[in-house]
Amino acid sequence: MEIKKIAVLGAGQMGNGIAQVCAQAGYGVKMRDIDQKFIDKGMAIIKKNLERGLTKGKITQEEIDAAL
Q1: CB atoms < 10 A from the CB of 16, how many?
Q2: Residue 34, domain extent
C-alpha cells in the first residue's frame, strides 16, 4: 500500500510544519482545525516559510506552487 494523501489535525505550530514538509515531499495534504481562522493562520505561516526559502535560494517558485 502506497500512501499518497495525509491529513493533519491542527494547524498550529506543529501541524502547519508537518503539513508543509509533507506537501513539499509530494503528498496530498488536508489540514483541519476547529475553526477556519486557525487554518488561515497556518497557511499564512506556511507561505511565509516557503517565501523565506525562496529568498535564500533553497527552493524555487515552481516548488512553492507545487507545495501550495
Answers
A1: 23
A2: 5-63
Contact present, 21 and 8 (Cβ < 8 Å): no
What total number of domains does the chain contain? 1
Contacts for 6-10 with beta carbons within 8 Å, 24 or more apart? 6/30, 7/31, 7/32, 8/32, 9/33, 10/38
In a domain, 68, yes or no: no
Provide the percentage of residues in the chain whose pLDDT is more than 90. 99
C-alpha cell at 35: 475553526
Answer whether residue 49 is part of any domain: yes
Per-residue pLDDT reduced to its tens digit, 42-68:
999 999 999 999 999 999 999 999 999
